[in-house]
Structures are given as C-alpha cells and as structure tokens.
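Researcher: Please translate sequence to structure tokens.
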Amino acid sequence: MVMAALSGEPLTTDKPPRPAPIIEIENLSFHYGAFRAVKDVTVAFAPNQITALIGPSGCGKSTLLRTLNRMNDLIPGTRVEGQVRYHGQDLYAKDVDAVEVRRRIGMVFQKANPFPKSIYENVAFGPKVTGFKGDMDGLVESSLRRAALWNDVKDKLGQSGMALSGGQQQRLCIARAIATNPDVILMDEPCSALDPRSTLQIEELMQELRESYTILIVTHNMQQASRASDNTVFLNMAEDRAGYVVEQGPTYDLFTNPRNQMTEDYVSGRFG
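Model: Translation complete:
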C-alpha cells in the first residue's frame, strides 16, 4: 500500500459501493380489518441475494412477504400503511398496476399448487396472460431448465403437472414463476411439505437462481435459513400480536453473534 502511494498511484481503502436495494420497506404496518398483523417494519433487500424471514408462527412473516407483490390486496378489508418501494417506485401508489407487480415479483407457495393442466401449459400460462408474443416453446424449455426440471419432463410435457412428485411439482411452480421474467422470487415455506432430498434440491436450485434473481424465503427451519440464505430477518410478536423486526443482518452474523438476546434464544431453540 505504501509503495503504491510513493509511485504516484492513488491510495484508497474505499470498499466498492453496495448495490442499491431492489426492494425497500419503510415503516410498514399491515391490517386485516381492525387487527394489525405487522407493525413498523423497515428493511431493505439487496439484489441477487437470498434473504430468509424467520420467527415463531403467527409473527407476520407470510403477511410481510405477501405485501411485497400485493397478494394481500385479494383479501377484503386489508390495509397498508408505510411504503414498499421496488426500484424506488412505491408499489402501492394509485397508478401502479398490481398485476404487473406480480409479474415482476413472482411467488412460490408453501404447498406446491400446479394448475390442473399439462406441464407445458403450467409454464406457459403466465406468459400467455401477460401477452407474450415470442417463442413459447423456447420460453417453456428455458424456464424448466432454470428450475432444474427439464431433464425429468422433456418427454412428457403434455402430461398433467399434478402427476409429478412433490419436489417436482414445487420445481414446476418455480418454473412457472420464472416464465414471466421476474426480478424477485418470493418463497413462502417452499420446502415444508417436502422430504429431505427434495428440500436439498430446492436449496441447491435457490443458489443457482440467485445469480439471476433476488430471493426472499419464509422458513421455520433454522438449519435451512442458516445454510441457504445470505441475510436473515428475525421477527417476533408484540403483546398486541403484531409482528415486528427484532434483528436483521448477514445470516452468519445473526446466527453466530446475534446482537439481541431474543434472537439468540430463538435461533438456539429456546422458544418458538
């Protein structure tokens, strides 16, 4: 470092700038009628990283996840306070199309839910709805390849997606989400109904997908959160049962050196 300075080269210890968050949540509260399910949440999600949302049952993890692509809009009587910004755009602004939000921020649910259609039609459904005019065969194949399912189904694309195994059905749902070309993929406990082998396959797939997508995953499995995510957000319930963020940060730090005693108690299995 000293020699570089003496030779006339600039001396700097500056770290490369962090990429701008792809999604920012600021002072978010969410209500089901009179019940406040989530309160005062402020958190940002970096691009091309996997973030795990952890916490005890009922603390608002899935509710928080669904605010990010406005899935909760489909439930009567719900209300949002605060802001959810995607690339700086307020997703709840009056001129924002919720359908377009869900195209850019895809979702994979807890239980694999393939449509009662062929494997091909499952993947092609979203692009058809959004008016895709390109090579549908190529899009279906590339989506299935990205979901690590192509080799399993390439000779039976006309068969029902319901006939696949549980792990294959979940990968089909991931392919279906990918087919609409999203930026972000939300996963709500995608492995809870799967056996250990299928769970490992989904986790390995997530690591591959993070090269192209930002992934947010809700999980009750502490081992899964610790091995599969880059960052972790820990939520708990207040006395009024509203979920709030206790601690957030890089997964390794949160699991090995948490700043909050409540976090340490949760990740070590003392409650939850």
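Researcher: Any highlights?
Model: The radius of gyration is 20 Å.
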